[in-house]
């Protein structure tokens, strides 16, 4: 059924992507590719479903056979945000189903349409009624009762750190397990020996793709002092040529902000950065000449120090803070000096430097000379306030399984019952 669902997703990718694009304004080219790739997620976990294996454990106890097995946790609550609702649901749902769990999905109240349409495919794939369920509504009215429901065993959540803390608190009251993929303030670190042309593209991909509405956005650009001015100039020249506009058009590179509250939040942080003394070298304003959409210019701030709010708090929009650094030690210090630890990138031609810095940066995913690559084969998740647990890869299915250890006596004679065996 998982494999058949993967085929159905691929066959319906353009229709599902169009519905999602209308909900959140994401580029048609990107969301269509994302939805097609979802099919591979479900096929990957279809292949993994019959490979969840326990182990026979040699112990120091004589006369017993000891082994482990894995069992599905039960009903899983999946709560997803508005920026990539179908993809981020798949990251949770595919391993949950492969583990043998059932699921209740609550999409964002801003982007429920694509999830409701996606749910229709499960019956076509042969899933029995009740295995996958979708409920819609606001967090307090629907999300909180779902998290605290006694029959929900595990919660998979992607969203902001404040909402993640609330879910974690509610889950802890009932001793439920959680997978939390939360926010980030990821450092994109460019050293003076990097291929600067490629690094510019990586910085753009890290913050201006999806209009910066990505948890893994490289919103802090750390540039070595010796190349700071040159690199910023190259970056401004590149970004200033990006085409903003209708996300349905294939040549559009930067689309709108998805929701009115997020649009206002992004503009408020631009003003905060200016008030803190940062220098706006590109953008910094809304665009009202691009049709019926909430557009914010790709914005770059220099003169940022890591204590500023613009460097510490997640904006979730096309706003980049540029911070200079001296050497490897300084880059590591600045990179880690934030509450988040979701992702990072290092741009250098030196293998030694790349290994040194990636060993020291506290982040769950670190790219070297690339940015924003993910795969169904590879774990994704954060350190510190960026979350708990991992999604994708073999690690993800373990989030939805309980480990049971069995001790089977092979002795004919019962040992002394008053002494622990």
From TrEMBL:
Span of domain Aldehyde dehydrogenase: 2-404
GO MF, one annotated term: oxidoreductase activity, acting on the aldehyde or oxo group of donors, NAD or NADP as acceptor
InterPro entries: Ald_DH/histidinol_DH, Ald_DH_C, Ald_DH_CS_GLU, Ald_DH_N, Aldehyde_DH_dom
Keyword terms of this UniProt record: Oxidoreductase
Gene3D superfamilies (alphabetical): Aldehyde Dehydrogenase, Chain A, domain 1, Aldehyde Dehydrogenase, Chain A, domain 2
Pfam families membership: Aldedh
Active site: 181
UniProt-listed PROSITE patterns: ALDEHYDE_DEHYDR_GLU (PS00687)
Family per record: Belongs to the aldehyde dehydrogenase family.
Name recorded for this polypeptide: Carnitine dehydratase
Organism whose genome encodes this protein: Noviherbaspirillum denitrificans
């Amino acid at each position: 059924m998982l494999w058949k669902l993967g085929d159905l997703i691929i066959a319906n990718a353009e229709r599902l992507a169009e519905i999602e694009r209308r909900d959140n304004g994401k580029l048609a080219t990107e969301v269509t590719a994302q939805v097609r790739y979802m099919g591979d997620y479900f096929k990957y976990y279809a292949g993994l479903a019959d490979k969840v294996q326990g182990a026979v454990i040699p112990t120091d106890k004589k006369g017993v056979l000891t082994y482990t097995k894995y069992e599905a946790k039960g009903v899983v609550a999946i709560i997803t945000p508005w920026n990539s609702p179908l993809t981020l649901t798949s990251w949770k749902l595919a391993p949950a189903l492969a583990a043998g769990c059932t699921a209740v999905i609550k999409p964002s109240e801003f982007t429920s349409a694509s999830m409701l349409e996606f749910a229709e495919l499960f019956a076509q794939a042969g899933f029995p009624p009740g295995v996958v369920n979708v409920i819609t509504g606001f967090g307090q009215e629907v999300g909180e009762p779902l998290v605290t429901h006694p029959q929900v065993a595990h919660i998979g959540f992607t969203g902001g750190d404040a909402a993640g803390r609330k879910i974690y608190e509610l889950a802890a009251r009932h001793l439920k397990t959680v997978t939390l993929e939360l926010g980030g303030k990821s450092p994109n670190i460019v050293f003076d020996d990097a291929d600067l042309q490629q690094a510019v593209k990586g910085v753009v991909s890290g913050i201006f793709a999806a209009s910066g509405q990505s948890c893994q956005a490289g919103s802090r650009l750390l540039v070595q002092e010796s190349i700071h001015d040159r690199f910023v100039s190259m970056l401004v020249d590149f970004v200033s040529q990006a085409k903003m506009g209708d996300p349905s058009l294939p040549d559009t590179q930067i689309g709108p902000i998805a929701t009115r509250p997020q649009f206002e939040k992004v503009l408020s942080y631009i003003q905060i950065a200016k008030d803190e003394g940062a220098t706006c070298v590109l953008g910094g304003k809304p665009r009202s000449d691009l049709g019926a959409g909430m557009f914010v210019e790709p914005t770059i701030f220099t003169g940022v120090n890591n204590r500023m709010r613009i460097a510490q708090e997640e904006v979730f929009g096309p706003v980049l803070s540029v911070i200079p650094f001296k050497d490897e030690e300084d880059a590591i210090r600045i990179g880690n000096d934030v509450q988040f630890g979701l992702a990072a990138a290092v741009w250098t031609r030196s293998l030694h430097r790349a290994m040194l810095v990636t060993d020291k940066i506290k982040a769950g995913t670190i790219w070297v000379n690339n940015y924003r690559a993910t795969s169904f084969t590879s774990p994704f998740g954060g350190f510190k306030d960026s979350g708990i647990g991992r999604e994708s890869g073999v690690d993800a299915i373990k989030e939805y399984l309980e480990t049971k250890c069995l001790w089977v006596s092979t002795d004919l004679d019962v040992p002394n019952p008053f002494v622990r065996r």
